[in-house]
Batch of 2 targets.
Target 1
Amino acid sequence: MDFHTHAAQYLNAFESDMKRDFHLIPNADFGGRRFPLFASYVHEDTSTLIMKNGKSVRSYEFCYFDVCECLNESVVGEYCAVLDNMAAQYVPWSEPSHGFSMLSMIVLTAGTPDRATQKVIKKYKHEETRKRPEDGYGWCSARLCVVDLSDGTCRVNTHGRALANRVKLTVSKVK
């Protein structure tokens, strides 16, 4: 089976797993690029333990999926730039009910990235916290997960560990 057919099976599995909770957009454009899948999720927590000033707190997740046959350091840098731009465009900082936003990028690739590329993946970090009304509210964090379709191995940045655990559940369904 060729790489692109295999990757399409994985994307279909992710879409199937996520369709219950996430708003899914196939072939989504962002920053001059087209991604095969975009998913967004908003959760409103009204428990009395987490309410801010008597109001509910909202959490958000925004996730792009891409397929990249030949991953290298510069391509990973481009994915990191997309995540950084997502923080500027998607995080609703001005909403007082904003608790947190998770920005995710899942990249399906053919083969293990070289050591230098793995290092760039691991070192990527984007984290913001805002506490003042003039700056905004809440925090956001970016997660990067690269999946080697040849063996299902996930390479992640620090915040991507939890995402990798979720990704592995979907990956295990595709053979």
Target 2
Amino acid sequence: MNNIIKKPMPQTPYPKPRLFVDADVLFAGAASPSEHSASLVVLQLAEITLIEALTSQQVITEAERNLAAKLPQALPTFRLLVSRSLQVVPNPQPEELVTYAGAADEKDLPILVAAVREKCPWLVTFNVRHFQPGHPRVAVLRPGDFIRRVRELLATW
């Protein structure tokens, strides 16, 4: 009989960064000609489980529709990235949006509300201005700015 004592893994006081990903980031990641684009790196960080990346069904539908119209050859990469990198959550119900009216462009409000509901302190998008004035619990940033934040977090360990 093997008498190896298994010690529990130490708990880190730092939770994984949790972010909400918008359609333009998914589009850019799937269509990226470079493996070093910020959008693709965000999705790869989620794939290797360094961060938790979430998105909504609305975002998936929008990104897939735009890729089908503009870059259909990127659809297989998109589907692979989604399956490996993202937790897809339901769209907010219309009644959930009422409290947040005016916090973002009407078309993008369900994305902001989903980020708030899912407790994502970051929403990553290229369309930062669409999410203004925003919500105090969600920082809206571009993919490159998020990557800089992750580097800063890693530097503190």
